[in-house]
Amino acid sequence: MSEVAESPAATAVVAAEDVTRRYGEGDTAVDALRGVDLEIRRGRLTAVMGPSGSGKSTLMHILAGLDRPTSGTVSIAGIDITRLDDTTLTKLRREHIGFVFQFFNLLPMLTAEENVTLPLSIAGEKPDPAWIDELLGKLGLSDRRTHRPAELSGGQQQRVAIARALVSKPTVMFADEPTGNLDSQTSEEILKLIRESVDDYGQTTVMVTHDARAAAIADRILFLADGLIVRESPRTSPDAVLAALAEIGT
Amino acid sequence: MSRVALKGLLGRKLRAALTAVAIVLGVAMVSGTYVLTDTIKGAFDTIFVQSYKNADAVITGKVAFTNNEGNAVETPSFPESLLGRVRALPDVVYAAGEVTDARTHLIGRDGKAIVTHGAPALAFSVDPNDQRFNPLTLTAGNWPRGPGQIVIDKATADKEHFRVGDTIRVEARGPVRPFVISGIAKYGSINIGNATFAGFDLPTAQVLLDKPGKLDVIRVQSRAGVATSKLLDELRPVLPQTAQVRSASAQAQEDLKQVGFISILQKILLVFAGIALFVGAFVIANTLSITIAQRTREFATLRTLGATRRQVLGSIIVEGLVIGVLASVVGLFAGLLLAKALNALFVSVGINLPRRGTVFETRTIIVSLLVGIVVTLVASLRPALRATRVPPIAAVREGAVLPPSRFARYRFASALVVLAAGIAVVSYGVLGSGIPLRLRLFLLGGGVLLLFVGVSLNTARLVPPLASTLGWPGTKIGGVAGRLARENAIRNPSRTASTASALMIGLALVAFVAVLGQGLRSSFEDAVDKLFVGDYALTSTDTFTPLTVSAERALRGAPGVEVVSGIRAGSGKVLGKVQNVTAVEPNMARVLRLTWKAGSPAVPAQLGSTGVFVNDDFAKTHHLALGSPITLETPTANVLDLHVIGIFANPKGGSPFGPVTISSSLFDQNYPRPQNEMAFVNTSGGVTPENSKALASKLEAFPDAKIQTRSEFKTNFERPINQLLGLLYVLLGLSVIISLFGIVNTLVLTVFERTRELGMLRAVGMTRRQVRRMIRHESVVTALIGAVLGIVVGIFLALLVTHALANEGFVFAVPYGNLVVFVIAAIIAGILAAIFPARRAARLNVLEALQYE
User: N or C terminus: fewer CB in 10 A for chain B?
Assistant: First the structure.
């Protein structure tokens, strides 16, 4: 647990301090997180790894403001989000947060392009055509603009989802098992795109995954077990990730 | 955001259409009601305006008071000599007199009077030489001249195949007389419905209508440039006491008041439209909340992308608005068709009102659209608010459930409170005394709505036991499909509950009507059995219009006839109010047995020229006892001084008697052209085929007369009750149909939701037939829950109303046969509602269903 000392607060875009999350009450209570501290630095790709039940999904939900911690604080871009009311949190989401989901969560009645620009429409902003063109080109969707999700492959759907997460240039992009629903070859493509968005656009990204190959593209890997961060590693190979996982054991 | 809503709607066309059907039908009922009643009113309007074409002023007879009790007050005629005085006035260019009557029956080819079902059987004089005031146009022949000629209306001529030159018989005040048809005419382009008319020249009409030397109407045309007010001022001084003058347009307006029943009809139909819309609102709310539950992840995703709760709410409101607008527009035009259907319905029960071109007023458009849109929006409000509670995290969590609302913990209590409030308000509305009518109606309407909502809110808890019980036969018939269907119905009790509730509303009202109808019938039969001790009854062919007294006289002295006793009916002003006045002959006690609270069965024979008997309710209200003096003012302004010599117990099932009954001899002296509402006959040997035949042959000269036995008499009097019930069933049927669409909606959405599960069932060996059966059984179970609850609520309401109206002769009687029919109908309805969803479910591709995400 050395990141607090290591990183200057100014570059931390997401910070968690002694976050706990308890589900249920009394004897049946489950502690999903038992005191997590972390900081996510700007322009970096951070992977959160861990076996199922380790609390990694809970951690991401809380960091992204989807769930509230039982105790502790979370801040995004210096704003404490644990005490915000729903409307303020929603507005914050528009500006600072992008999501990529395991099951894509595209709106079936909208075309690929409409899905991509949806966050802007919701925020009442006009899309910049040049930016949309670039984004769609980058993600290889230029000839898929008018297709609906049902007409796209899984990989294409996830690309639309990534473009949608990037379109508002959020402070941080959260990716929840982005390859969890894809075959290995498609997964490779998606991971490459996520990596590129970090490298080319400096997109700060937090990715929750249990896939060692996915974790291996991250600049920094946090290992979670039983609700605590038990280890962290700089960028490394999939084999090293697997070894680390085996070491934490469960 | 609203683009997302609209695109979403386009993507769910079927669901949107299913949601819209409920509103389309409700709005169609609103617009159909307006179109129909406006069309009828428009026709009457034209008739009355046309009646005074080219006239500037109209002189009519004046009644001493107007009657609002139903029995027509006979307008007195005035002397013909007035016409000469009018013509002599300086500003009068032309004036013409007319006699009229509304009870002159044309006799059909079968020798029976042509039944007009309460519409007027008009007779009047027409001037063959001057057509300026004549609203009719000839379609064949000429205007009548001389004592033997008649002109009849085209509809009757067509229906009965009469042509110019044929002979037609006419029954007016005296015996039947034959006339030669000189011409056939029609009233412009207006369909006069059930009404008939007969036109004669003035002297002929005066004789036929028993108005010698008299006139009913004088139309006056003034010199050009003379103001109507000046003309009226000139006319007034020459009028006798019994006549009055109005401008032609004022007279047309006055005549229009006679058809006030149209606005009552309009209000009644609008009530049914309101019920349909209420049921529609249930269906919409239910369909939308299911749809919204299924779109939880979509809303959550929108929230993660930065949509606020307000935006989610807005997008659903936009959807509701679009559905509301489209459905209302479709409903508005569907109303044009429904107006025709409603009219056909009325014609089928004998109500055939005048019509002309369809009247489609701006008001119809505005009200229909507004009502449809507002109802849709209100119905979508609760589901929309539910959607705003979808948390963003539901986007990543499989099977996320909505957090309970802030009020959820009060749900149980509030459901009971609403139900209790509904029962309390309805009970107070029905049983409370001294409530003004308007407030009472408001309490009843609001209370019943509250009651329905209350029952619906509590139904979710009743669903498991009800579904288990009602689904039991299905498990025996349908095997595993039946068992699964029963479990499926219980799986989401509140969904099943609100689907069933829509049907509950319709069936509650149907059951209510059935129970009340049965009560009316049995109390009426009971009354007839107690009162009617004669052998035969004599009425007009349509049972309810009065019959000339000559028919009764014709039976006197016929072989086998022992007693003939007629009951006259009219109205009069008694103790400050217009009342129905009846009159009896001295031998009344031989045919009718009244229970006397004061006086004896000899009272009818003792009435003489000063006696009167009253019923106990009237006596109680006005504190009358034997010997109390009463004055009776007749419509011709005669004042009779009477005193009470008898008080009878008013039979609960009704009686032929008004509150006040005098002797027939006194009645005949004071009422011009007296008529019987009915007469009773005793024959030697009672009812025998010979006696029936002998009576019928004596009545051959009276085509409007009908002799009947006691059971025929009951049937004839119950016919309108039964027709009314039939009419109400059909009108409520629309609400039931809407609720069936609700079942269809729920099932379709459920099938959609259970796609994966259905795929699994098919994969483990369930046949398509079993899938269909499963859906069908679930539908039947839902329909049965609605039917059972509806019947219970309906019986409760009927019990309440019967209790309140016990003094008016309502008894509580359950029509078990009808209720069984309703349950069977519900089962059939459930099966019908399941056809489409079951087919969809059975068609699922197993593989795709399993892959479905």
Answer: C
